[in-house]
Design brief:
By secondary structure, the protein is α/β, with parallel strands linked by helices. The chain has five helices and seven strands, in the order ααααββαβββββ. It has a five-stranded mixed β-barrel with strand order 3-4-5-7-6. The chain is globular and about 50 Å long.
Length: 208
């Protein structure tokens, strides 16, 4: 039986070995070139793709995600648009908020207001009176008026000119402002309840 093994030919000449060397040299050179091109191709592919940790935005998921919309959009039902009041509306609301000063049946008893004006400081009040004295200076007006048949008076000040006169009956809407210190016509020191008025309404002209 013949032996299938390939035995080395010890009688091979140097010229035969040079061909083998050339073959292996060409093979190795091809592998090197292939490796270089593969490396360049990988670098180019890596530079064109985003980094691994770079965020990826999925526009479809944002537009279709209702929970995202509910977190980031304001619902018209929940949006409260502040409506500015017109001067007429503000006046109407202010007058409505004032407490009437008058008899025992009214929110503020007149006698209590006259006795303890500081108690009502800052309170919005409405009070009726007859002008005893009025003076205007630089667009500001000061009024002293009777508030009952006993000729008790209060002092009203307002930061505007008003078309009312001595003897007119007026309704004053404003805030209690403590007391006004002054002197009467006899020179005696006096104090009167003070009202910082926002609105004055003419109820009746003076009898002429």
């Amino acid at each position: 039986m013949e032996d299938d093994r390939i035995e080395a030919n010890n009688d091979a000449k140097p010229s035969d070995l040079s061909g083998v060397k050339a073959f292996f040299g060409a093979l190795i050179a091809g592998i090197v070139v292939f490796s270089i091109f593969s490396s360049c191709s990988d670098k180019k592919s890596a530079s064109s793709s985003p980094p691994v940790d770079a965020p990826t935005v999925k526009t479809d998921s944002v537009s279709n995600d209702t929970s995202y919309l509910s977190r980031n959009l304001v619902s018209p039902a929940n949006a409260q648009v502040a409506k500015e009041l017109t001067p007429a509306d503000y006046k109407k609301d202010y007058i409505k908020s004032c407490q009437k000063v008058g008899s025992r049946r009214d929110p503020i008893y007149l006698k209590e207001f006259l006795k303890s004006p500081d108690k009502f400081k800052g309170n919005r009040i409405s009070i009726l009176g007859k002008i005893m004295f009025i003076e205007e200076d630089s667009g500001r007006t000061v009024i002293q008026m009777y508030v009952n048949s006993n000729f008790d008076t209060v002092v009203v000040r307002i930061s505007e000119s008003v078309k009312v006169y001595d003897g007119d009956v007026i309704q004053v809407y404003g805030e209690g402002d403590g007391t006004f210190e002054g002197v009467n016509r006899m020179g005696a020191s006096m104090s009167w309840p003070l009202i910082a008025a926002n609105y004055i309404s003419l109820k009746r002209h003076a009898e002429e």
